[in-house]
């Protein structure tokens, strides 16, 4: 779906497709992330694939929120306060990863209520992801070690 919308954007410069693209891309990322996380949670032992999958899941969550922030900026250009004149995708990715890690440098801040809500939600998801994932991996390791 994302590919088709990008293709339509090339053919017609209307912003209607642009709005759809910024909604479809995060949905595709969310779908892939859910598949990865389910694979991790259903795993019976820790492998290299599980470790890399958990890292990919975390990075995909951050990238997804960056795309969602871009959609918010498209809907409301003043959704975020940023020191530079223009907000770029790299600025929004930076905001996403500083938010998901709860680091928050403070140079980019949410202005709009929906942007504030999204930032809080991303921080909560990031904390839950890391804590749940670490608990799951420790439980797998303990279970696997006790069987040996």
Structure keywords:
two-stranded antiparallel ribbon; 148 residues; single chain; mainly alpha; 76% helix; 3% strand; 5 helices
Tell me what the structure shows.
- This protein is mainly alpha-helical and 148 residues long.
- The protein contains five helices and two strands; from the N terminus they run αααβαβα.
- It has helices spanning 2-11, 15-42, 48-75, 89-100, 113-147; strands at residues 80-81, 109-110.
- The longest helix is centred in the last third of the chain and has 35 residues, at 113-147.
- The chain is flat.
Task: Write a brief structural summary.
This protein is mainly α.
Question: Could you give the topology of this structure?
Answer:
Elements lengths: L1 H10 L3 H28 L5 H28 L4 E2 L7 H12 L8 E2 L2 H35 L1
Helix pairs in contact: 1-2, 2-3, 3-4, 3-5
Helix fraction by DSSP (H/I, runs of at least 4): over 70%
Radius of gyration: 18 Å
Q: What percent strand?
A: under 5%
* Spatial gap, N to C terminus: 47 Å
Question: What is the helix/strand order?
Answer: HHHEHEH
Treating each run of at least 4 consecutive H or I residues as one helix, how many helices? 5
Strand order of the largest sheet: 1-2
Low-confidence stretches: none
Helix/strand structural class: mainly alpha
Largest sheet: 2 strands, antiparallel
Mean pLDDT: 86
Shape by Cα distribution: flat
**What is the total tally of β strands?**
2
């Amino acid at each position: 779906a994302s590919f088709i919308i990008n293709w339509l954007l090339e053919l017609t410069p209307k912003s209607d497709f642009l709005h759809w693209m910024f909604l479809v891309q995060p949905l595709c990322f969310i779908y892939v992330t859910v598949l990865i996380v389910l694979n991790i949670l259903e795993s019976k032992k820790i492998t290299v694939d599980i470790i890399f999958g958990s890292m990919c899941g975390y990075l995909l969550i951050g990238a997804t929120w960056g795309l969602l922030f871009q959609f918010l900026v498209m809907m409301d250009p003043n959704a975020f306060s940023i020191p530079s004149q223009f907000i770029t995708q790299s600025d929004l990715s930076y905001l996403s990863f500083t938010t998901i890690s709860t680091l928050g440098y403070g140079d980019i801040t949410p202005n709009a209520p929906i942007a504030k809500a999204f930032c809080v939600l991303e921080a909560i998801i990031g904390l839950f992801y890391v804590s749940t994932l670490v608990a799951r991996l420790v439980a797998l390791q303990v279970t696997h070690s006790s069987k040996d």
